[in-house]
């Protein structure tokens, strides 16, 4: 597949050109927010920031952060810059508690959004010739329509099957010769399993490219998905969220060494999520994004709560834009152990490669003296290994070495009887942090 670049002018410019453009756009955005959104006007006034005070890109640090709570508090339209009659679309993100967050787009916003997705889709390998089935649910969720318009923009043939109805999805895939799929990683895997059960040979499918997103995907799961479809099926990751248009903020190219950010539209920073301090280039922390070109619902320094790091070395694909590493986890789930950031997802992806253990594990954090300790409790699938000391010790050591090499800190591994760890019906509670409760014992 070719390494076509959708917009070489914007995706391959020099760092200094890009930074000049970002600064110009940032100043215009601050001025726009100040004049058109009461919420921002007050915030900027309190912080004593005006557009002419922004002399360099690092002056962005004086602008206050915006959070999801700000959007909820101003529900539904309190942060919009224009009356709704000037908007051409609304979307909303599902709110599990309280108000959902509502986002609005001007005509210009939709055009920019389609441009951003067109770049991401092209980087992944989609072309004018692609036949793309979109298996995301259409509706208030931005995933489906976001990909839809970006893929139409590059001239691909879009098949908006939406979510569900697996038999029909598979029939269209065979009959239309669908070669590109937009889906969640888990649904893409489920489709492959269903295809095999249906009895049509997998060779009857022409799937070559997956633009998978909207949920996490470990490298191991990606490999499993690619193998289950076979035939050179290639999976790429892309990233975005409704507050920042939707998908299209960043996406992997064929090199798959991080997600290229559309930096002329999105100015990214990485901060320490507890102190709010901006971190040095290359550090791991929470991604904060200023949407330089968004107008209906402008966003200044939006805290994504996603943990990642940025890379600036040139990429073999020819794009010069910075890349963000695949999201490592949510700031809410992050554990700090002896000064090192640890995510349950990192441990999960280490455990998945061991066949002797099941999907259930627990992380126990303690403080002994002045040092934090991490115990990883893992459930065995077959309890008989507990009878053989040699096997047990060998397995324990392999798991230990694997996790230690990923995290870079010392840990202990305990193997426990099958079905002995607590089961959860909702979101699993993997972490038991005893550092504060045991402190005075
Ligand atoms: Zn690249």
Structure summarized in a few sentences:
With 441 residues, the chain is of the alpha/beta class. The chain is 30% helix and 24% strand. Helix 6 links the parallel strand 3 (131-134) and strand 4 (157-159).
Stretches where pLDDT is under 50 for at least 5 consecutive residues are none
- The pLDDT mean sits at 92
Please give the share of residues in helix: 25-40%
Q: What percent strand? A: 15-25%
Which radius of gyration do the C-alpha atoms yield? 23 Å
Number of strands: 21
Helix-strand layout with pairing:
Elements: H1 8-11, H2 15-36, H3 38-46, H4 68-73, E1 89-93, E2 101-105, H5 107-124, E3 131-134, H6 142-153, E4 157-159, H7 166-176, E5 180-183, H8 185-198, E6 209-212, H9 219-229, E7 234-241, E8 246-252, E9 259-261, E10 266-271, E11 285-291, E12 299-308, E13 310-311, E14 323-324, E15 329-330, E16 335-337, E17 340-342, H10 344-351, E18 357-368, E19 371-380, H11 389-407, E20 412-416, E21 431-433
Parallel strand pairs: 3-4, 3-5, 5-6, 6-7, 18-21, 19-20
Antiparallel strand pairs: 1-2, 7-8, 8-9, 9-14, 10-11, 11-12, 12-15, 13-14, 16-17, 18-19
Helix pairs in contact: 2-3, 5-6, 7-8, 8-9, 10-11
The structure holds zinc ion.
């Amino acid at each position: 597949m070719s390494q076509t670049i959708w917009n070489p002018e914007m995706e391959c410019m020099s760092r200094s050109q890009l930074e000049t453009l970002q600064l110009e756009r940032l100043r215009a955005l601050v001025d726009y927010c100040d004049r058109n959104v009461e919420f921002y006007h007050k915030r900027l006034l309190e912080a004593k920031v005006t557009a002419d005070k922004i002399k360099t890109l690092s002056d962005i640090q004086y602008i206050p952060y915006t959070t999801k709570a700000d959007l909820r508090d101003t529900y539904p339209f309190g942060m919009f810059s224009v009356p709704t009659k000037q908007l051409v679309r609304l979307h909303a993100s599902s709110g599990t508690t309280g108000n959902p967050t509502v986002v609005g787009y001007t005509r210009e916003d939709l055009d920019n959004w389609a441009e951003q997705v067109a770049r991401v889709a092209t980087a992944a390998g989609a072309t004018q010739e692609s036949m793309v089935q979109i298996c995301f649910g259409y509706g208030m969720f931005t995933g489906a329509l976001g990909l839809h318009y970006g893929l139409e923009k590059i001239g691909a043939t879009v098949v908006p099957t939406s979510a569900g109805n697996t038999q029909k999805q598979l029939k269209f895939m065979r009959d239309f010769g669908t070669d590109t799929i937009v889906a969640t990683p888990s649904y893409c895997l489920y489709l492959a399993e269903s295809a095999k059960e249906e009895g049509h040979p997998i060779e009857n499918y022409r799937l070559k490219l997956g633009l998978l997103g909207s949920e996490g995907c470990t490298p191991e799961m990606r490999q499993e998905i690619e193998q289950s479809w076979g035939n050179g099926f290639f999976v790429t990751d892309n990233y975005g969220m409704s507050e920042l248009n939707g998908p299209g903020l960043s996406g992997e190219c064929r090199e798959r060494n991080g997600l290229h950010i559309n930096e002329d539209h999105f100015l990214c920073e990485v901060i320490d999520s507890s102190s709010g301090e901006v971190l040095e280039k290359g550090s791991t922390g929470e991604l904060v994004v200023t949407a330089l070109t968004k107008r209906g619902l402008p966003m200044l320094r939006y805290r994504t709560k996603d943990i990642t790091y940025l890379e600036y070395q040139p990429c073999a694909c020819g794009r010069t834009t910075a890349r963000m590493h695949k999201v490592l986890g949510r700031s809410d789930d992050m554990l700090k152990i002896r000064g090192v950031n640890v995510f349950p997802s990192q441990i999960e992806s280490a455990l998945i490669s061991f066949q002797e253990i099941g999907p259930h594990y627990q992380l126990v954090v303690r403080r002994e003296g002045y040092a934090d300790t991490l115990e990883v409790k893992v459930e065995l699938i077959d309890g008989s290994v507990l009878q053989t000391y040699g096997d047990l010790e060998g397995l324990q050591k392999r798991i230990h070495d694997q996790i230690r090499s990923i995290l870079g800190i010392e840990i202990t591994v305990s193997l426990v009887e099958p079905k002995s760890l607590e089961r959860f019906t909702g979101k699993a509670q993997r972490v038991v942090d005893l550092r504060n409760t045991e402190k005075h014992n």
